[in-house]
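Quick one: structure for this chain?
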Amino acid sequence: MAGPVAPPRPIDVARWLWIASAGIGMLRFVAQLFDRELLVSEARRQNPGLGQDQVDAGVNGGILFGLLIALVVLVAYTRLANAMARGRNRARIALTVLGAASVAFGLFRVAAWGSGVAASAGVEMTAADLGVTVVTAVLDTSAIVLMYRASAHFRTSVTVDSASPRT
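Got it. Here's what it folds into:
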């Protein structure tokens, strides 16, 4: 077996675009988690009979669970992107499905904001939230396109790095 080979440039760029998109999405999610006043007011609206200690405990648990989910999603995207760079077609397909869903959801959010449907439904979207949605949609679209520009990479057995040899 030959030594490690670098993936084609479009594949390597796509890997980093996936990781960047997941990181930016995670940062947006974490920023929303730390808007404690919004979380407390939502908890009070949904359960008006709860005391302050119960609301605080629920919000703290929700924040901790949200951080755990954000970390799991970031690790999953990173592992999928690295597997895709090693030539795993399953990872490319999974990233395509996840990316297409992300782009579709992002376009839906922007369309709902632009048409006023989101505001009439009581959904508040800040400029930063819309900006992150557009940026992640562009990153995901670019990564999908780049993954399919070097399709031959997914037909050969290669080792990208020595830390995770491919058999």
